[in-house]
């Protein structure tokens, strides 16, 4: 099964993907996580994309599309995947369709997780992430069990620099202009399912599971 999780920053794509990858045999592929890992390791790709992430702007399509196919063509994606943060532009969505068609495959579901901006801003302000294993927390809704220590790997959790309020506003604007048009794109394609992402985490999971069963 191949699923796209669509939604603005803070909608809960990563949170849901971390739950669903355990419930189904699917790889969770987050382009944001791949970029951040490359920045941390100071790779050539990391150096190219660092300024875009810091500014909350999108990495150019060509670079992102090459990166995603390198990843999706690996054997661990054969059984299926959850795409979190890709596609983010019409050009990327078309490249995904074309690449899948070339490989004789198709997308099964596009889950649009809808959340209002006010809620998104609160979620992003309170988000904490583990810089080592990528686990996601929230200071109020889902704090680590002990202080600021990641439950999974014991590393101190941090706030993403692009979750600071100045960058959050730019990212929400980027979402509106460049990514929101994908809702129409996939609606026309006939595989869009919209869920209310403002509900508690387990209720959003249940809504997604109902939709893909
Ligand atoms: P995205 O991957 O879409 O940017 P995340 O999954 O990282 O979003 O979630 C953003 C923040 O909101 C995190 O701190 C997460 O713990 C919290 N969160 C996610 N889903 C919910 C929910 N349904 N209700 C409340 N908080 C949530
Ligand atoms: P995310 O972790 O999904 O919030 O993504 C963090 C940042 O990575 C974004 O603000 C962009 O700078 C970059 N990014 C992630 N996915 C994409 C994509 N599909 N296209 C372009 N840039 C992306």
Q: Which descriptors would you attach to this protein?
A:
213 residues; alpha/beta; five-stranded parallel beta sheet; 7 strands; binds adenosine-5'-diphosphate; binds adenosine monophosphate
Set down the secondary structure blueprint:
Elements lengths: L1 E5 L6 H11 L3 E4 H10 L3 H12 L5 H12 L8 E4 L5 H13 L6 E6 L2 H10 E3 L6 E3 L26 H15 L1 H9 L2 E5 L4 H12 L1
Parallel strand pairs: 1-3, 1-4, 2-3, 4-7
Antiparallel strand pairs: 5-6
Helix pairs in contact: 1-9, 2-3, 4-5, 6-7
Bound molecules: adenosine-5'-diphosphate (ADP) and adenosine monophosphate.
3D architecture notes:
- This protein is α/β, with parallel strands linked by helices.
- The protein is built from nine helices and seven strands, in the order βαβαααβαβαββααβα.
- It has a five-stranded parallel sheet with strand order 2-3-1-4-7, with helices on both faces. The protein has a two-stranded antiparallel ribbon with strand order 5-6.
- A hairpin with a 6-residue loop joins strand 5 and strand 6.
- Helix 4 packs parallel to helix 5.
- The protein starts with a strand and ends with a helix.
- 32% of the residues are buried.
- The model has no long low-confidence stretch (mean pLDDT 96).
- The protein binds adenosine-5'-diphosphate (ADP) and adenosine monophosphate (AMP).
- The site of adenosine monophosphate has 18 residues, from helix 2 and helix 3.
């Amino acid at each position: 099964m191949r699923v796209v999780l669509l939604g603005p920053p803070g909608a809960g794509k990563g949170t849901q993907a971390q739950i669903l990858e355990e419930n189904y045999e699917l790889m969770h592929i987050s382009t944001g996580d791949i970029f951040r890992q490359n920045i941390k390791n100071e790779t050539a790709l990391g150096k190219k994309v660092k300024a875009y992430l810091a500014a909350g702007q999108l990495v150019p399509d060509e670079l992102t599309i090459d990166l995603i196919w390198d990843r999706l063509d690996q054997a661990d994606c054969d059984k299926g995947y959850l795409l979190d943060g890709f596609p983010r532009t019409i050009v990327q969505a078309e490249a995904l369709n074309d690449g899948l068609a070339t490989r004789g495959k198709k997308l099964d579901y596009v889950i649009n997780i809808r959340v209002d901006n006010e809620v998104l801003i609160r979620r992003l302000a309170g988000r904490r992430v583990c810089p080592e294993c990528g686990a996601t927390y929230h200071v109020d809704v889902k704090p680590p069990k002990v202080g600021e220590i990641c439950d999974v790997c014991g590393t101190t959790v941090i706030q993403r620099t692009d979750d600071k309020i100045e960058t959050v506003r730019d990212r929400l604007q980027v979402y509106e202009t460049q990514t929101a048009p994908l809702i129409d794109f996939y609606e026309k394609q006939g595989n869009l399912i919209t869920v209310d992402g403002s509900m508690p985490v387990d209720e959003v999971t249940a809504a997604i599971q109902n939709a893909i069963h």
